[in-house]
Specification:
Layout lengths: L1 H33 L4 H8 L5 H11 L8 H7 L4 E3 L8 E4 L5 H17 L1 H12 L4 H26 L1
Antiparallel strand pairs: 1-2
Helix pairs in contact: 2-3, 3-5, 4-7, 5-6, 5-7, 6-7
Length: 162
C-alpha cells in the first residue's frame, strides 16, 4: 500500500514537471519570435555556449555594448571584477565586487562553466589555474570576466553598425 502511494506522488510530480517543461518551451518560442529581428541577439546566439536565455539576458541587462568605454568597464558592470581586500603587506582576495547585476553575473558564471567544459581555449585556462591551486569558483569567475571583456569587442562593432 505504501509503495502505491509513493508511486502516486512520484507520478504527480512527473506530470507537473512535464507541464512546466511544455510551458517553458512555449515561453522560449515566444521570446525567440519577439527577438528574431534583433541583430545583437542573433550575433550572441552564434557564440559558443550562448543559448537563448543567456543571449536575451545579456541583451536585456546590457542593452548597447557601445555605451561602455572598454571591456574592463563591461566586466565591472556585470559584477565580474575581483574585489581586493589587501592592506599593507597583506595580500587578500575578497571574491567578486558586490556591485553589478546579480542575474547577469549568475548567467555569465553559468556560461563560464559551459565554456570551460566545451571550449578548448577556456579549458586550457581552467587547467592552468587549477595547476596553480585556484578553486573552481575563482576559475569560473575569471573565465566569465575574460569572456565578457572579449565579448565587448565582438559586440561593440555590431552596436555601432545598427
Amino acid at each position: 500500500a505504501i509503495d502505491g502511494q509513493v508511486r502516486y506522488v512520484i507520478n504527480c510530480h512527473l506530470k507537473r514537471l512535464k507541464q512546466q517543461e511544455a510551458e517553458l518551451k512555449r515561453l522560449e518560442q515566444r521570446l525567440a519570435c519577439a527577438t528574431r529581428h534583433d541583430p545583437l541577439v542573433a550575433r550572441l546566439l552564434e557564440l559558443k555556449g550562448v543559448g537563448l536565455i543567456t543571449a536575451l539576458t545579456l541583451r536585456a541587462e546590457i542593452g548597447r555594448f557601445d555605451r561602455f568605454v572598454n571591456g574592463k568597464q563591461l566586466a565591472r558592470f556585470c559584477g565580474l571584477t575581483p574585489c581586493n581586500a589587501s592592506s599593507g603587506q597583506r595580500q587578500a582576495d575578497a571574491g567578486l565586487i558586490h556591485a553589478g547585476n546579480p542575474q547577469l553575473r549568475a548567467v555569465l558564471i553559468e556560461l563560464a562553466h559551459r565554456l570551460i567544459r566545451y571550449d578548448p581555449r577556456w579549458s586550457r585556462l581552467h587547467a592552468e589555474m587549477r595547476r596553480r591551486g585556484k578553486p573552481g569558483s575563482v576559475i569560473a569567475a575569471a573565465v566569465a570576466n575574460r569572456w565578457s571583456r572579449w565579448l565587448f569587442h565582438q559586440m561593440k562593432a555590431i552596436d555601432q553598425a545598427v
